TrEMBL record:
Residues 34-57 are annotated as: Disordered. Belongs to the ATP-dependent AMP-binding enzyme family. This is S27A3 protein. It comes from Prunella himalayana. InterPro entries: ANL_N_sf. The lineage of its organism: Eukaryota, Metazoa, Chordata, Craniata, Vertebrata. One of its GO terms (molecular function) is long-chain fatty acid-CoA ligase activity. Keywords: Ligase. The keyword Transmembrane does not apply.
Amino acid sequence: PGRPCPQLFSPFEVVRYDVAAGAPERDKAGRCIRARTGERRARGAPGGARGGPVTVPVPAGETGLLIAPVTPRTPFLGYAGSPELSEQKLLRGVFAEGDEFFNTGDLVEQDEEQFVRFRDRIGDTFRWKGENVATTEVAEALLAHESLQEATVYGVTVPG
């Protein structure tokens, strides 16, 4: 039990991200939905260590937004000469009243062992049949075909 080693040096969370709204998903209380360390299980796995239900807000393999707490130990000093842009990168009331997190703009996938893989940047994703799709995921799928050497993918608005 305990925190994975990377969390000790550079704390972070992965929260659900609503591509259509362009913002992290929040629950009825207005708090972001996160994965909890030690509660991650593969899809369809039974309950937790004591047989109870497992909470998996961001299941292993689901793409979510990487955020980092802003604290005296991990400050965000802002962008030089741009207080407006600096303010846009901050998320408040993420998990509790008064907390503050830096929005990295990175969409990542976190596996059962807490390893994080970069998937895409915000703005490079789209919704398809209710699922968040990263353009890099589509490009990787295309590149699996032997006849392709390069692929560039971007989302477009489809009328209707």
